[in-house]
From TrEMBL, chain A:
Coiled coil: none annotated. The keyword Membrane does not apply. Keywords: Ribonucleoprotein, Ribosomal protein. This is (Mediterranean fruit fly) hypothetical protein. CDD domains: uS7_Mitochondria_Mammalian (cd14870).
Automatic annotation (TrEMBL), chain B:
Residues 179-248 form the Small ribosomal subunit protein mS35 mitochondrial conserved domain. Pfam families: MRP-S28. GO terms for biological process: mitochondrial translation. The gene is RT35. This is (Mediterranean fruit fly) hypothetical protein.
UniProtKB/TrEMBL annotation, chain C:
Its main location: mitochondrion. One of its GO terms (cellular component) is mitochondrial small ribosomal subunit. The keyword Ribonucleoprotein applies. This is Small ribosomal subunit protein uS9m. The gene is RT09. It is found in: Mitochondrion. It comes from Ceratitis capitata (Mediterranean fruit fly).
UniProtKB/TrEMBL annotation, chain D:
GO terms for cellular component: mitochondrial small ribosomal subunit. Keywords: Mitochondrion, Ribonucleoprotein, Ribosomal protein, Transit peptide. GO terms for molecular function: structural constituent of ribosome. One of its GO terms (biological process) is apoptotic process. This is Small ribosomal subunit protein mS29. InterPro entries: P-loop_NTPase, Ribosomal_mS29, Ribosomal_mS29_met. Belongs to the mitochondrion-specific ribosomal protein mS29 family. It is found in: Mitochondrion. Its main location: mitochondrion. Pfam families: DAP3. It comes from the Eukaryota.
Length: 222, 331, 397, 392
């Protein structure tokens, strides 16, 4: 009887057994929803009432409601960071933003009639560049019958953002010594925002390769 | 459900007809009964070499001294406690009729009781100062009290007549000795305004006492703790005050030969600022000593303030005003 | 049988019996005992001798009975001593013994024996014996050494019995569901148990209810089983059973008491939050309303923080509550680095702002994670490792 | 962020296009969210500094490109401000209350009295240099001979070349810096000097062969200094004493504007002497002439000086107040001077600055309450505001 009891309990307990790990919070704490907009969205659903009983983790020290905050930009800063020097990373991205903006404003000044079509907001430019350089597919090596095949597989949304940002950064870091990172990053972002440049090319190359290897796509499952 | 069965089971067992049991058969019961019979029999010892009983009994048995039961067991609950515990004394478990416990234990275990509990002896107790005892003693002391001196009714009067304030602390402490080393410390407070000085003496006095003077409250504080006894420390503090006061009136011979760099404070009169200010005022005038205009007193004061008190927005604003006035610049 | 007996003897030695007679139930303990009653077995000394007379009793049982009697006597003398002591103490303090309560006793003891020991439990005390000698699990087997409980040998009979009961309930509901399905009726959606705002009985409480120690995994098993039970469509049929093990959650915001603002010399409202902690920084924050948006940190303005991130952090609660420029903030902070100090001030401002915003905003701020203290600290470096987590590069040779 | 749809293998390129257009739409929405601007709120057409009054306070006026070139080609504006000018395609200065106050003082100056020294002080980035730029513009428009040193600490902290002085024993000469300053002086004053036709009062003998005879114009003197870099420092000394002389003779009006004046009273410079030790500024040949011209013993002039804590070397940057920065000697040298505090923006100035930035497309993101946030993040400090708006 005991055994049957255990077998009844076990499958679910395996799923639900939350390992707390090294977190300072108990497992039932949930992440903070610090954006007002998100909270308003939640309010429309009845999730909001349920949240009132749940303990919330403290907001991180880079979260804020300020005008400078953007989730994607924050992520980009984190990717730029080396050795924990976030202050520098943020400064670099800010400089790069400044550079982009100056370029765009100069463009605006050159032909004032196209003022409305030129995007000079660096944040929008960055978002656009990232969206433009996000891959949909990637290749992985899968071994079938002793032969490795390059099989195209879809990329998750999160990873596609990661790859886009990584590529942008790699392109920016690949430069002569005299050019500073912010400048190069600004150029790369501007290029990618206009759907050209090395990063977009890299993405397209990858897609082309995936296209040519579509014959192997079935190896993903069989 | 199981609870019910258990209750039922218990009831059956406790009732007179206990022979019938749930979940048991008779065979098992019988065997266990026989076992019990064996277990109950006395174990016979095989004594091969029979020694005499007398030698065995000779061994001296250690006998404990009979201990008196604790005294508090004989106490009446309406006794006069101050007669039992008249003065300060270390905790005595047999005298104190309270079931006290003290000490840290792991969860689940009771704290150690009062007997042979050193912790209870270490801490001070106020068993001699229970409210009834205090009341009693106050009553007894009342007849020796003298009236409060006239003229010292208010705090201001007290301060006026006794400007020196002496502070010392008595400690009631868990220590093996009753003499706390901190008890010898004597603190002397006096308002500087209660002492009479001239300008030089005051300056010197403040230099002598250093940071013992608090400019915000105007109170001088002398703390003496170098002697072993409080009395000595008190004498020493009073001596320090007297000595500093009289020393401050002494003017040394070298004080007259100080140069500008040695000066304690900035004085407009002695400095280049005065020269340049006066040169500007007298610009274009023929050089005549008698007719020479002197720099405004307000300006001099503002410069002195700026340098002596240190820069701040207020001082700088005042300086600016004075300069505008001096140079006759209109807004 | 012999093995079983031996285990029984051992258990007897471990579990000193405590007898719960009705007279001993004090007010403070009545509740707990009420809970315990379901699981702790009652053995009274009087009940045993009837059986003893007829049957031969094992030596272990004899010793056990002896000990039970001794304990009973001991408790009786303790109680007497306590009553007498209480009268003595009332006499010492010059008060009436009849109206002398436990609180008076505590005060009197604290006055007579002033102890500065940090741990309050280690200070002198005079408590009723019921509190001093905690209750323990009663005997679990009869005089022949036979356990009462069929799951005695699992080691935690009450706990496993509980699991068993849960499954039994589940089975009942499954059967019911089947029958209902055959009849073509479905579960009433309106009656479905809404478990939001409730949680399962915490582990400690469950332990004291079962009078057994259980480990974390077992507790998880319990909660999982209960979750399953609740998730069944007809779970409302065993509502009473579920209720027994559930505990209502308090509204998180209502748990924190919001301080009332005080008035300063200018007639402005202000609230001060002390002990604002983050990492190794520590500070206190005063928020004044109405204000002009002046921010003072250690006597400087917001330029005290050179980094933009830290400034953003300080302003975060103000922006969030829409009070930027409407309140004045004064903060003193020391220790830690810039980000820690900014975090401490952020928390302080958010906590103080609660007094100046409505309840909805407080809840909103809580959801934004502004009212939660951030307990995360730097993780220590471990020996044999390069840092907190990273290992040294391993080379085979 | 955009949602990700389920994907299909073909038609990849089409999808990318769809994403980018969606992103563009989002951005356009934000662009139209801007507040309406009326240029009279933050701009003034009054370019004549003489007319500037409290009416124009907090408004921007435009510096014509020629005048900008004449005044600041040799420095005098912060580098980042130059960059802004390039991006904005115009050079605009805000009329600050402090500069108005100072201009008022200068307008009412009695030029028969000894020269008054005005000392601008304030925290980092409040606009001391730009206030001075405004005053310099006034000087240019009102025919002052400008003796303008863009940034003294440049000489004391990073000189181009150091040489032991030939004429004065134990002194250090900075020939390149001196020559650069002479060029700056020339570009600022060439027109005015040719008008005034000031002549040297005595012979200057540089070497056996070279000499500037009495009666040659000051421009000649300056050009000699530029051509013969070796004598540039001595030329400056000569030039300044000549100018002072002429001013005393009522032949011209001089405006002395020295930025970072406290660098002359540094406890130490970064220049290394013979024995590899840091020397004090009074051993630099350039110091004395500029100290002479900031003395009170002449007339027909105005001295505008700034003291700045970033002009100091490490360990001497605790306070921005003039007495601290000038030290005892510097204070005695200048006393009595008029201290003028340059403060952070007022609310009005801040609003006008934000509007100007919006007008120049410098601020691209304008969500609700952005100005309020910027106000508190920057503490209304002009420089911090400029830095903060970089990424917006």
């Amino acid at each position: 009887m005991l055994r049957s009891l255990c077998s009844r309990l076990e499958p679910q307990s395996l799923i639900c057994a939350v390992t707390r790990g090294m977190s300072a919070y108990s497992p039932h704490y949930i992440e903070a929803i610090f954006s007002k907009k998100k909270q308003l969205n939640l309010k429309e659903t009845d999730e909001y009432i349920k949240l009132s009983h749940l303990p919330i983790k403290a907001a991180k020290n880079d979260d804020s409601e300020s005008i400078f905050y953007n989730e994607l930009v924050n992520k980009m800063v984190n990717y730029i960071t080396k050795g924990g020097n976030k202050k520098l990373a943020r400064e670099l991205l800010t400089k790069s933003f400044e550079c982009m903006k100056r370029v765009q404003i100069e463009r605006m000044n050159l032909n004032p009639e196209s003022k409305d079509t030129i995007i000079a907001d660096p944040e929008q430019l960055l978002i656009k560049a990232i969206e433009n350089s996000r891959p949909l597919l990637q290749l992985t090596a899968i071994k079938r019958g002793g032969v490795k095949y390059q099989v195209p597989i879809p990329v998750t949304e999160k990873r596609s953002y990661f790859l886009a940002m990584k590529w942008l950064l790699e392109a920016a870091r690949e430069k002569e010594r005299k050019v500073h990172l912010p400048e190069k990053l600004a150029w790369e972002v501007l290029d990618a925002a206009y759907n050209q440049g090395r990063v977009v090319k890299r993405k397209n190359d990858l897609h082309r390769q995936c296209e040519s290897n579509r014959a192997y796509a079935h190896y993903r499952w069989s | 459900m199981s609870l019910l069965t258990r209750l039922l089971e218990r009831n059956l067992r406790n009732s007179g007809a206990g022979a019938r049991r749930l979940y048991s058969n008779h065979a098992e019961e019988e065997s266990s009964a026989t076992k019990h019979e064996f277990a109950d029999e006395e174990f016979r010892v095989l004594n091969l070499r029979s020694t005499s009983q007398a030698t065995q009994q000779k061994r001296k048995v250690f006998k404990k001294e009979p201990v008196q039961p604790p005294r508090h067991q004989k106490m009446a609950t309406d006794q006069d406690w101050s007669a039992v515990w008249p003065g300060p004394r270390t905790f005595q478990p047999s005298v104190v009729p309270l079931p006290l416990r003290q000490g840290y234990t792991e969860k689940g275990a009771p704290p150690p009781s009062k007997f042979a509990n050193a912790e209870l002896m270490k801490i001070p107790n106020f068993l001699h100062l229970t409210p009834p005892a205090i009341r009693q003693q106050c009553e007894a002391l009342k007849k020796f009290c003298t009236p409060w001196p006239k003229g010292l009714e208010t705090l201001e009067n007290c301060e006026k007549r006794f400007p020196i304030e002496i502070k010392s602390t008595d400690y009631c402490h868990a220590l093996p000795t009753i003499r706390n080393p901190e008890a010898r410390r004597v603190t002397l407070n006096i308002k500087l305004s209660d002492l009479k000085f001239d300008a030089h003496a005051k300056d010197k006095f403040l230099r002598l006492v250093g940071d013992r003077y608090n400019p915000n409250t105007g109170i001088l504080t002398i703390v003496a703790d170098r002697c072993p006894l409080r009395k000595q420390n008190y004498d020493y503090a009073m001596y320090l005050l007297t000595a500093c006061y009289h020393e401050s009136f002494v003017t040394e011979s070298w004080e007259s030969s100080k140069s500008e760099a040695d000066m304690e404070y900035y004085s407009f009169e002695r400095n280049k600022s005065k020269q340049s200010a006066e040169a500007i005022i007298n610009w274009g005038q023929p050089v005549e000593e008698a007719k020479k205009l002197n720099a405004d007193h307000g300006f001099a004061q503002s410069v002195e303030q700026l340098i002596n008190e240190g820069e701040n927005v207020y001082n700088l604003g005042k300086y600016k005003e004075e300069v505008l006035k001096l140079l006759n610049i209109s807004k | 049988m012999e093995v079983a007996l031996r285990i029984g003897v051992n258990l007897l030695k471990i579990n000193r019996v405590c007898v719960h007679s009705a007279s001993r139930i004090t007010d403070s303990y009545a509740k707990q005992i009420q809970l315990n009653r379901d699981f702790s077995t009652e053995v009274t000394v009087n009940a045993a001798p009837l059986a003893v007379k007829k049957h031969k009793v094992s030596k272990a049982m004899k010793a056990y009975l002896e000990r039970a009697r001794e304990n009973d006597e001991f408790m009786k003398t303790q109680k007497l001593e306590y009553q007498i002591g209480k009268r003595h103490l009332a006499n010492m303090m010059g008060e009436d013994a009849e109206t002398f309560t436990q609180e008076d006793i505590d005060n009197a003891i604290a006055y007579l024996f002033p102890s500065g020991i940090f741990d309050k439990r280690a200070r002198p005390l005079m408590k009723s014996p019921e509190e001093v000698f905690p209750a323990r699990k009663a005997a679990e087997f009869d005089e022949t050494g036979r356990p009462f409980h069929s799951m005695f040998y699992t080691g935690r009979p009450n706990f496993f019995k509980l699991l068993y009961d849960i499954v039994e309930e589940m089975n009942k509901i499954h059967d019911l569901e089947e029958r209902m399905l055959r009849r073509g009726t479905r579960a009433d959606a309106n009656q479905k148990i809404d478990f939001t705002g409730f949680q399962w009985m915490p582990k400690e409480q469950l332990e004291s209810m079962l009078v057994e120690q259980i480990n974390d995994l077992e507790y998880t098993n319990f909660t999982n089983a209960m979750d399953r039970l609740v998730s069944l469509p007809f779970s409302y049929k065993c509502q009473n059973f579920i209720k027994k093990f559930s505990k209502p959650l308090l509204d998180q915001t209502k748990q924190l008491e919001i301080p009332k603002p005080q008035f300063d010399a200018d007639g402005r409202q202000f609230v001060t939050t002390y002990e604002c902690l983050r990492k190794t920084a520590r500070g206190d924050v005063t928020v004044r309303m109405p204000g002009t948006g002046k921010i003072t940190i250690n006597g400087h303005d917001i330029t005290y923080f050179e980094e933009l991130q830290s400034r953003e952090q300080v302003l975060f609660p103000l922006i969030f509550a829409g009070l930027l420029g409407k309140v004045d903030v004064e903060a003193n902070v020391e220790g830690g680095g810039t980000s820690g100090q900014a975090g401490a001030i952020r928390w302080g401002i958010a906590m103080s702002l609660r007094s100046f915003v409505d309840q909805e905003m407080v809840e909103s701020m809580r959801l934004a994670g502004l009212l939660q203290r951030d307990y995360r600290r730097r993780e220590r470096k471990k020996f044999g490792q390069e840092g907190a987590r990273r290992k040294y590069t391993w080379k085979k040779r | 962020m955009l949602g990700r749809h389920s994907f299909k293998l073909p038609r990849l390129t089409n999808m990318c296009v769809a994403y980018s257009t969606a992103a563009a739409e989002a951005s356009v929405e934000q662009l139209y969210n801007r507040p309406k601007l009326t240029s009279t709120d933050y701009r003034t057409a009054e370019n004549n500094t003489k007319q500037h009054s409290a009416v124009h306070e907090g408004k921007f006026y435009t510096l014509s490109p020629e005048q900008k070139k004449q005044l600041f080609s040799g420095g005098g504006l912060p580098r980042q401000y130059e960059q802004q000018i390039k991006t904005f395609t115009e050079a605009c200065l805000m009329v600050r209350p402090t500069s108005l106050e100072l201009l008022n003082y200068i307008r009412n100056t009695d030029f028969t009295r000894p020269v008054v020294r005005y000392v601008l002080y304030g925290e980092n980035g409040v606009g001391k240099t730009l206030t001075m730029a405004h005053v310099l513009h006034y000087g240019l428009q009102n025919n002052f001979v400008l003796v303008h040193v863009p940034w003294v600490p440049n000489w004391m902290k990073r000189p181009k070349e150091t040489v032991n002085a030939t004429t004065q024993e134990g002194f250090i000469d900075l020939p390149f810096d001196a020559a650069a300053w002479l060029v700056h002086f020339k570009t600022q004053n060439a027109n005015l000097l040719t008008q005034l036709q000031l002549k040297t009062s005595k012979d200057y003998v540089w070497t056996k062969r070279e000499a500037t005879p009495a009666g040659s114009t000051l421009l000649e003197l300056v050009e000699h200094g530029i051509a013969r870099i070796k004598f540039a420092s001595e030329t400056i000394a000569a030039l300044l004493s000549e100018l002072k002389q002429h001013a005393n003779d009522d032949k011209c009006k001089i405006m002395v504007a020295i930025d970072g004046f406290n660098a002359f009273f540094h406890p130490e410079t970064r220049i290394l002497g013979d024995n590899k030790q840091r020397i004090t500024p009074d051993r630099v040949t350039l110091t004395q002439p500029f100290l002479d011209i900031t003395n009170y013993n002449w007339k027909n002039g105005v001295c505008v000086l700034t003291v700045d804590k970033i002009g100091m070397t490490e360990g001497y940057m605790d306070s921005y107040l003039p007495r601290y920065l000038l030290g005892k000697e510097g204070f005695e040298h200048l006393d009595p001077f008029v201290p003028l505090h340059v403060d952070n923006y007022s609310d009005k100035e801040f609003a006008s600055c934000i509007q100007y930035y919006l007008d120049r497309n410098w601020i691209q993101k304008t969500p609700e309450g952005f100005d309020e946030q910027l106000k508190y993040l920057s503490n209304k400090n002009p420089y911090t505001l400029m830095r903060l708006t970089r990424s917006l």
